[in-house]
Write a structure and sequence with these properties.
Blueprint (H helix, E strand, L loop, with lengths): L12 E5 L4 H12 L3 E6 L2 H13 L3 E6 L5 H12 L6 E4 L14 H28 L4 E6 L12 H21 L4 E8 L8 H4 L2 H8 L13 H8 L10 E4 L9
Bound molecules: 1,4-dihydronicotinamide adenine dinucleotide.
The site of 1,4-dihydronicotinamide adenine dinucleotide has 28 residues, from helix 1 and helix 4.
InterPro entries: NAD(P)-bd_dom_sf (IPR036291), Sc_DH/Rdtase_CS (IPR020904), SDR_fam (IPR002347)
Family: Belongs to the short-chain dehydrogenases/reductases (SDR) family.
GO molecular function: oxidoreductase activity, acting on the CH-OH group of donors, NAD or NADP as acceptor
Length: 256
């Protein structure tokens, strides 16, 4: 197999959570373009159907599945539904939310929603995925979408930053325990990635101030995630597990 061929994903089934927008949608289309069948999962199933169509129009294979990552019954039902199609060997834990308020204003509900989605949700999906892989003797790759805020701080998003720090440690402990089953677990730590949801803010005056604090002086584009995702998902990254890869234009190592 040539080095380039090792990045192909033919014959693999990938599950992407939070696939209805932004990074999740982009990852789904990327994995399909490299030959994987893609199970797109999110609460908003109607929005997934149009992405399934877009993937099919480009010759890819995809199906939509309802999933609320905060709910164990929903997670189990999603894997049961997907199992008729196969066992996912690639899982992208991408679903995530944030609540922006000062630490004095964050409520218990804010905390619960963010931690349940970003941390408990990743744990529920990753462990259920691993159980299916082990039962079917499938080697696999679990990729958790953390954030540079799992390692650094900014104002106003304490539960989010704490949840992402938890995802980083979850990634490393799962990598340790699952290595014997040939299941790899890694995390990607994006910096600011331009998506439909934040484009307006990132182009505003405040966004411009933020950009100037990034050593590379640029926000990331969705396509900047392609290399890291394909490396971790494919045979090219066969020996990589327990790693955390920042994709941030050196934001994480910016000068204090
Ligand atoms: P987004 O808001 O466009 O996508 C989040 C997705 O998660 C949506 O499809 C939403 O429906 C889904 N979701 C939320 N709660 C869910 C639940 N309970 N069950 C199932 N799906 C649920 O946001 P974006 O920017 O694409 O973010 C994706 C991931 O990347 C998140 O984990 C986020 O924290 C992370 N990230 C994003 C960065 C950025 O600059 N866009 C930077 C660093 C990390």
């Amino acid at each position: 197999m040539s080095p380039a061929e090792r990045f192909r994903l033919d014959g693999q089934l990938a599950l992407v959570t939070g696939a209805s927008s932004g990074i999740g949608r982009h990852c789904s289309e990327l994995l399909a373009s490299m030959g994987a069948k893609v199970a797109l999962a999110s609460r908003r199933i109607d929005q997934l159907e149009s992405i399934v169509k877009a993937i099919e129009q480009k010759g890819g294979l995809a199906k939509a599945f309802p999933l609320d990552v905060t709910n164990i019954e929903s997670v189990k039902a999603c894997f049961d539904a997907i199992s008729e199609w196969g066992t996912p060997s690639i899982v992208i834990n991408n679903a995530g939310i944030s609540v922006t308020k000062s630490i004095l204003e964050q409520t218990e509900t804010d905390w619960d929603q963010v931690i349940d989605t970003n941390l408990k949700g990743v744990w529920l999906v990753a462990t259920e995925a691993a159980r299916h892989m082990v039962a079917s003797k499938t080697s696999g790759s679990i990729i958790n979408m953390a954030s540079i805020l799992g390692e650094r701080q900014i104002n106003g998003v304490a539960p989010y930053a704490i949840s992402k720090a938890g995802v980083i440690q979850l990634t490393k402990t799962m990598a340790l325990e699952l290595a014997r089953y040939q299941i790899r677990v890694n995390a990607i730590l994006p910096g600011y990635v331009v998506t439909d949801l934040n484009r307006e803010f990132l182009q505003s005056e405040l966004g411009e101030k933020l950009r100037l604090r990034i050593p590379s002086r640029r926000f990331s584009e969705l396509s900047d995630l392609d290399g890291p995702i394909l490396l971790l998902a494919s045979d090219a990254g066969k020996a990589i597990s327990g790693s955390t890869i920042p994709v941030d234009g050196a934001h994480l190592v910016s000068s204090l």
